[in-house]
Amino acid sequence: MRYLPKSPTDRIEMLEAIGVPSIDSLFESVPAEFRLTRDLNIPRQHSESEVLDRFKAFAANVASGELAEAQTATQYASFLGAGAYRHYRPVVIDSLVQRGEFLTSYTPYQPEIAQGTLQATFEFQTMICELTGMEIANASMYDGSTGCAEAVMMAVRVTGRSGAVVARSVHPEYREVLHTTVQHQGIPVTEVAFDTTTGRVDLNALEATITEDTACVLIQSPNFFGTIEDVAALAEIAHKKGALLIVSIAEALSLGIVKPPVEADIVSLEAQSFGVAVGFGGPYCGVLACKEKFLRQMPGRLCGETKDSNGKRGFVLTLSTREQHIRREKATSNICTNQALVSLMVTIYLTVYGKQGLKELAEQNLAKAEYLRSSLERSGAKKLFSGPSFNEFAVVLPATAEATNAKLLEKQIIGGLSLAKWYPELGEGASLWCATELTTKAQIDAAAEGVR
Amino acid sequence: MSEKFVGTPRKVSTHVNQNEDLIFEKSSPGKKGYRLAELDVPAVDAASLLGEQTRQDLGVMPELSEIEIVRHFTRLSTWNYAIDLGMYPLGSCTMKYNGRINELVARLEGLAEAHPYQPEELSQGALGIMKLLSDCLIEITGMDAITLQPAAGAHGEFTGILLAKAYHTANGNPRKKILIPDSAHGTNPATAAVCGYDIANLKSNARGMVDLEALAKAVDEDVAALMLTNPSTIGVFEEDIHKIADILHAKGALLYMDGANMNALCGKTRPGDFGADVMHLNLHKTFSTPHGGGGPGSGPVACKKILEPFLPTPVVVERENGLLGLEYNRPQTVGRVRAWYGNFGMFIRALAYILANGPDGLRQTTEDAVLNANYLRAKLKHLFDLPFDAPSMHEVVFSDKRQTKNGVKTGDMGKRLIDYGFHAYTVSFPLVVPGAMMIEPTESESKEELDLLVDALEQIAKEADENPELVKTAPHTTRLQRLDETTAARKPVLRWKAPAAATPLTPESAAKEW
Question: How wide is the angle at C-alpha A198 spanned by C-alphas A197 and A202, nearest 5°?
Answer without folding.
Answer: 90
